[in-house]
Every structure is written in structure tokens, then in C-alpha cells.
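Human: If only I could read C-alpha cells as easily as an amino acid sequence. Take your time, and here it is.
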Amino acid sequence: MILLQEKSRGKRILITPNDVPASRLIEKLAKYLKENVDAVTPPAWANISKTGVHKEKQPQDPAWWYTRCASIFRKIYTHGPIGTEKLRADYGGRKNRGVKPNRAAKAGGSIIRKALQQLETAGYIETLKPRGRRVTHEGRKLLQELTEDLSKELVKELPELEKYQKGE
């Protein structure tokens, strides 16, 4: 884990992916996966498929596959070990049933399964047979490096955040 140490007091501050905004981390992680990880690529059917039965159209963002993989990766880090069914429920939504009341619908399982398989092939997550998947050492290292870079960017944007890194 990334530890920052203040020289005068000797305090250690731990920076984890939970300490930065999730949207910014997912955006940065998606960009990293797209540019640097060959194992994570959208399947041929990804541009014509919906993400679940509760959606009417396919995603409009052309790089949605990398965003979903990054989001799943972060969710496994924060809630892991976690399985496919729990992820399906998390990415699901309300199904519009016309005149009848809306009901909860799970997201498509194939998208989540393929994303998990690709992240596993890349070496960032691993399977724990009865419990689901968790992040490997390499995955934790990647997330924490990106978190450190992101926290430095945030301090440059908002200098007030520097006091949280120093432990004041």
C-alpha cells in the first residue's frame, strides 16, 4: 500500500482507491486498460448488445467496454470477493413494464462474465471457488499506483486537499 510519511511528525497516511472519487479513478483506469492491457478488448458483439434487459438501447459511448471493466475491477477491490450474480444485481436497474409497476431487473450476465474472464487473463483478479473473485497482488499494485497519481492530480487542482495527505 502507498504510504506517505511526513518528515516532521513521522505520521503515516495510507492512500487507497477508496480515498479518491470513484468516477475519476474509473475514468483513469479505463484509459489505462484501453492503452496498456491487451487482454482486455471488447468482444465482436459488444457494439450491438444492451447491458441488460432493463435498457432500451446499447451504450452510446464507444469505449463503454473499458469503462465497465474498470468499474467491475474497482467494485471487486472494494467489495471483494464478489460473484457474478451480485455484480449482475449491482449493475441492474428498473425495468419499465409499461402500465404495470416497474420491477428490478439484473444486468446481462455475459458482459460481466467476459469482463471478469478478461481481467483474470490479464492477471488482475483471481477466482476463489466458493466465494467469487478477488483482486490479486498485481491488481492491487496497479490500483494503488493509479490512486497515487490521481491524488497528486487532485492536489494540483485543489491545493486544500494537501492537508489530508500530510495527516494534519
In short: The CA atoms of residues 47 and 58 lie 7 Å apart. Residues 2-166 form a domain with the Arc Repressor Mutant, subunit A fold (CATH 1.10.10.10). The chain has one domain: 2-166.
